[in-house]
Amino acid sequence: HKKLVKNGFSIINDVYTKKELHTIGKELHMYFSNCEESTFGKRRLLQDIPSLKPLLFNENLKLLINTIDPNAFQVKSIFFDKPEDANWFVSWHQDVPINIKERKETVGFTSWTKKQDIHSVCPPDEVLQNMFTIRIHLDETTSQNGALKVISGTHNKRFTSEELTAITSNTTPTIIEVQEGGIQLMKPLLLHASSKVLNQKRRRVIHLEFSST
User: Fold this and answer.
1) Residue 133: beta bridge partners?
2) How do residues 49-104 score in pLDDT, each as one tens digit?
3) By the 8 A CB rule, do 197 and 146 touch?
4) Residue 52 CA to chain centroid, in angstroms?
């Protein structure tokens, strides 16, 4: 938790056993083999596959969430799958939009969008600073298969595009390598990016966001 507050991220391995990962993988495979959706990314993951909830929220994860913020509740769930033949990268950015139940014009909340029946909006910075992200790694993630790159300490403010370019051009990033069954904790405003897959090894990640606001 101290590293999360200071640096904007931390890594904890051995949160899930191989048996737990196998069961989670089986649920995902069953869902995607019976529908037409792309497996590269899925929004509303836990709404559409509720059987994943008890598998993801094991005793280790519940203890961790309670340690960070006992009032936190889950507000976003996404599945990312960079398969073996994937060849894209994600440029430097901050996770600014949040998901909400309904659109309600409110001072300080801007840039409304709606994708797949999900309303998103950019909130004031204090809302984002209250939040944290847990990225559950179903596969070993290294610099060779699209691990996140982050810039430590950039999680306390929102940057303009000019500031972002200046920071990312002049700072050496940290590569977030996580073992299979480990997690990465992250603050939404932490600058992050990811590279192309180089070693043809799959990288599946479940991205959960939490807030107590």
Assistant:
1) 186, 209
2) 999 999 999 999 999 999 999 999 999 999 998 776 666 788 999 999 999 999 99
3) yes
4) 16
